[in-house]
Amino acid sequence: MAEPIEILPDEADVRLDRWFRRHYPALSHGQLEKLLRTGQVRVDGKRAKANLRLVPGQKVRVPPNLTTDAPAPVVKAGPDKRVKQWVLFEDDDVLVLNKPPGLAVQGGTGQRQHLDAMLEQWRDAKGERPRLVHRLDKDTSGVLLLAKSVFAAAKLTAAFRARDTRKVYWAVTLGCPKPLEGRIDLPLKKVGTKMVGTTPQDEEGQDAATLFSVLEPAGKQAALVALWPLTGRTHQLRVHLQAIGTPILGDPIYKPAERVDGSVAPQWEAGSLYDGLHLHARRLIIPHPRGGVIDASAPIPPAMQKTFRWFNFAGDQPDPFDGDEDGRKKPRQKK
């Protein structure tokens, strides 16, 4: 009998069947199930099921005749050149991309192309490929973080779950928020296909809070606004800005019944502005899985720069939330 194989820290919380898929790619799921049923595979000397979550230090006993040789690989063209152009930062654990607008992160109905499929070409020699640890809407551009190992995925997911992060978005709004900075507390719930604001008394509502700060106003017509979602509800920023009467420019779903100041929405010269959703994940700060901090910022995509030129937005504004590390304080007062 071969020596048992010890589970490494990077393999924490991996299912037993996925561990086998990674180390013994030639072994089919049916063959593994037979080995488990007959007790030929054991974990710490005990019988185990395929869905067992592994713990570092555990020892897996496997039959001596199993081979780690993989089937003949499919010839690949290497990492997608488009994805390589979007890389903001990469090391052995993480991959940070500047996702372009209009690209879905995952597949779905009617989605012929999505980022998750493009990452198939990034598999390494062990069969690992970058995996998503958070999401951006299809029409939202900017910083997107991926994990390159099971260890990194667990650490980053835990950081998002504990809200040990800062995600800063930039939006161009229709109209300028008043006051110029503050906090929006509005619970959200889903009604049909949309998210709507509700009251704290509504049991279906989920708490949602957003800090906002106007970076550059363009009179009463528009503004460049920085946003820090303290919670991560679906379409939170879009609904919150709609609720205060300054929806995101180009948003086809969340439009105001009327402007805050009662004025009619301006009509700009055809073709003068970007025709998509003006929402960009500008910055992400999160603990690195192995210590230290990931602090990534994404430049505005070329398509949205058209709008920035029209309104003469500088586009190089500092983060107004620096210093508000706990997310409970309001943004710093502008001088």
Low-confidence stretches: 70-78, 328-335
Q: What coarse outline follows from CA principal-axis ratios? A: elongated
The major pleated sheet works out as: 10 strands, mixed
H-E string: EHHEEEHEEHEEHEEEEEEHEEH
Cα-based radius of gyration, to the nearest Å: 24 Å
- The portion of residues assigned to helices is 10-25%
Backbone structural class: alpha+beta
Our count of helices gives 7
Count the beta strands.
16
Strand content: 15-25%
Q: What integer is the average pLDDT?
A: 85
* Chain oligomer state: single chain
End-to-end distance: 74 Å
Outline the secondary-structure elements.
Layout lengths: L4 E2 L9 H8 L5 H9 L4 E2 L2 E2 L11 E3 L19 H5 L1 E4 L3 E6 L15 H4 L12 E2 L8 E7 L2 H12 L4 E9 L6 E5 L2 E4 L2 E4 L11 E10 L3 E8 L6 H8 L35 E9 L5 E5 L4 H10 L24
Parallel strand pairs: 8-15
Antiparallel strand pairs: 1-4, 2-3, 2-4, 5-6, 6-8, 7-8, 9-14, 9-15, 10-13, 11-12, 13-14, 15-16
Q: Keywords, please?
A:
alpha+beta; 335 residues; ten-stranded mixed sheet
Can I get a quick summary?
By secondary structure, this protein is an alpha+beta fold. It has seven helices and 16 strands.
What does this protein look like?
Helix content is 17%, strand content 24%. It is α+β, with helices and mostly antiparallel strands and 335 residues long. The strands form three sheets. Strands 5, 6, 7, 8, 9, 10, 13, 14, 15 and 16 form a ten-stranded mixed beta sheet that branches. The N and C termini lie far apart (74 Å). Residues 70-78 and 328-335 have low confidence and may be disordered.
